[in-house]
Specification:
277 residues, alpha/beta, 7-stranded parallel beta sheet, 15% strand, globular
Length: 277
């Protein structure tokens, strides 16, 4: 029988859990029975998520405001989570990421851009993992879910630094899965694409184009919403994925599978020449 509260009794930490995908993950985890410890840099988003969770029946939430790229915030998040969870932390979701630092042709970026992208995409994953793994090792169990991107699985012009560090997230996920498996800790990640969220809203992706074109770009014919990504993260965090570790799951509506093939616009068939889909 499917458990309607697969995280009942567990403590889950979500970075960047105030809005977008992170907000969806935080709300869904609370519905799934977890005590959620939510970090975000945006006070308003954090407060909105807290209010929504507290409205849920038996919803439990603790918030930690701060920039997760700062070591002090990571340490404070760990301490708050330990206190709230009475010494246990069962799930860590390293959700924070941002494609914008270092955007543009690589030869027009500089070392400040690289450092900013490293901090927001990969370094905080190292720090949070380093902070929370000893807790999970001591209790003999845990699940870590990282958030990468499909752009780490293919070439992307104008975002090469972002792509590179996200590829690092995927490689780190696999390595940690091997290192930590005998400690009872599973480590996986998701690779989103075409997400209609605060960071990449649908209007910005469309840029005035006919919304019907979405059906030619994405095999499933629509943009993803926060719940689409949260559902997969919940699966990976729960015992439903008890024999799954070291994997990266694209949550992309089929874009990776399509690999450059597009549905013809208002016609039958497909094309790999998208100037006239």
């Amino acid at each position: 029988m499917l458990d309607k509260a697969p995280l009942r009794g567990k403590t889950a930490v979500i970075t960047g859990g105030g809005g977008g995908m992170g907000g969806g993950i935080s709300r869904l985890f609370a519905e799934a029975g977890a005590l959620v410890v939510v970090n975000d840099i945006d006070r308003d988003l954090l407060a909105a998520t807290q209010r929504d969770i507290e409205k849920q029946r038996d919803g439990r939430v603790v918030t930690v405001h701060g920039d997760i790229t700062e070591a002090e915030t990571v340490a404070r998040l760990r301490d708050v989570a330990l206190d709230a969870g009475r010494g246990r932390v069962d799930v860590l979701v390293n959700n924070v990421g941002d494609y914008r630092p270092g955007t543009g042709l690589f030869m027009r970026t500089d070392e400040d851009d690289w450092r900013a992208q490293y901090a927001i995409t990969l370094e905080h994953v190292f720090r949070c993992t380093y902070a929370f793994v000893p807790i999970m090792q001591a209790q003999g169990s845990g699940a870590i879910v990282n958030n990468a991107t499909v752009e780490a699985l293919r070439g992307i012009p104008y975002n090469s630094v972002y792509s590179a560090f996200n590829a690092g997230v995927i490689a780190f996920t696999k390595s940690m899965a091997v290192e930590l498996g005998r400690d009872g800790i599973r480590v996986n990640c998701i690779a989103p694409d075409m997400a209609d969220t605060l960071q990449t809203p649908a209007d910005a992706m469309l840029r005035g184009r006919d919304p019907e074109l979405i059906k030619s770009w994405i095999p499933l014919g629509r943009f993803g919403v926060a719940e689409d990504y949260a559902n997969v993260v919940l699966f990976l965090a729960s015992d439903m994925a008890g024999y799954v570790t070291g994997h990266c799951i694209p949550v992309d509506g089929g874009t990776i599978a399509a690999s450059g093939w597009y549905g013809r616009y208002q016609k039958k068939g497909f094309t790999n020449l998208p100037d006239n889909p």
